[in-house]
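Researcher: Let's do a round of design. I'm pasting the structure tokens now; please hold your answer until I've finished.
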């Protein structure tokens, strides 16, 4: 039987009667009882070795671990020898689970909130719980750690001084393209989550709406089959059909060029009217896309409207 080693945050011999333990590299460490309150604990996004010592100590020291999927969190606790009480907290049971958590906190309990992977609340449930815990006057403690957003930014080789995290895009194509057109106006690197069964369609939409930008596809970050591809959006879209679609994806798209200017709507209309007088809708759109800084989809729709107005009928204007 291995001898116990005192926790790095605990004075040896002062663990108390209800001491908890966790194991690291075969060494059994003692965790003090966590202070009352809600502890937001970041957990690995793939490689279990990315867990922090503070996270392990907290998970061992709390009274309850609230988690999205108890089966997934149990793999983590068993890996590090933590015998904690796991309770489900996810989007489907949150309304019922929140009052019970608040009741336990009012009784002086310490509770850890974890997501299946990464930092809690980032595209995961938890915001309403944190808000209500604060409103009830209880402590909320954040334990920083793994995040697929920051990991993707670090390896994408794109500007990181300003970034915008979008989370998951709409699943329906029309709504997704509309949202991407809005995102295209943001002067920052964009970070988006996407599922494997939609990543190819999303890359095609990105190529149309954010033509010319640098981007990166990050798949299965920190896991055995981690893959990062960096290229122009159009180049990534061109190879989309060859991508392995199993796993978790983070898409990172660079900001618009420093000299890119977004043309005002009135100026765009003037440009399109001028081009349409001596050319086709297709040529007018191509010219406007090149110099306006606006998405092709938006320009094409406006060009059709103006062409119909010029002709005075409703026929299809593209030739």
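Researcher: That's everything. Go ahead.
Model: Designed sequence:
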């Amino acid at each position: 039987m291995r001898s116990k080693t005192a926790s790095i945050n605990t004075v040896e011999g002062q663990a108390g009667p209800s001491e908890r333990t966790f194991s690291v590299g075969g060494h059994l460490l003692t965790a003090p009882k966590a202070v009352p309150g809600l502890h937001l604990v970041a957990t690995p996004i793939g490689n279990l070795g990315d867990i922090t010592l503070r996270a392990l100590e907290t998970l061992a020291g709390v009274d309850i671990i609230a988690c999205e999927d108890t089966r997934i969190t149990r793999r983590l606790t068993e890996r590090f020898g933590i015998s904690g009480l796991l309770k489900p907290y996810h989007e489907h049971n949150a309304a019922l689970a929140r009052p019970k958590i608040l009741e336990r906190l009012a009784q002086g309990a310490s509770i850890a909130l974890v997501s299946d992977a990464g930092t809690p609340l980032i595209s995961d449930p938890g915001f309403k719980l944190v808000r209500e815990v604060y409103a009830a006057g209880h402590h909320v403690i954040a334990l920083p750690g793994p995040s697929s957003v920051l990991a993707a930014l670090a390896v994408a080789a794109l500007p990181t001084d300003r970034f915008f995290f979008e989370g998951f895009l709409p699943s329906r194509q029309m709504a997704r393209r509309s949202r991407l057109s809005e995102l295209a106006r943001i002067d920052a690197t964009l970070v988006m989550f996407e599922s494997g069964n939609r990543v190819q369609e999303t890359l095609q939409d990105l190529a149309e709406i954010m033509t010319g930008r640098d981007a990166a596809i990050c798949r299965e970050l920190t896991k055995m089959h981690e893959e990062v591809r960096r290229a122009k959006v159009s180049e990534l879209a061109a190879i989309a059909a060859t991508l392995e679609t199993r796993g978790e994806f983070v898409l990172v798209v660079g900001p618009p060029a420093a000299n890119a200017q977004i043309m005002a709507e009135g100026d765009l209309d003037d440009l399109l009217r001028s081009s349409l007088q001596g050319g086709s809708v297709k040529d007018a759109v191509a010219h406007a896309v090149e110099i306006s800084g606006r998405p092709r989809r938006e320009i094409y729709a406006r060009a059709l409207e103006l062409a119909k107005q010029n002709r005075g009928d409703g026929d299809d204007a593209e030739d």
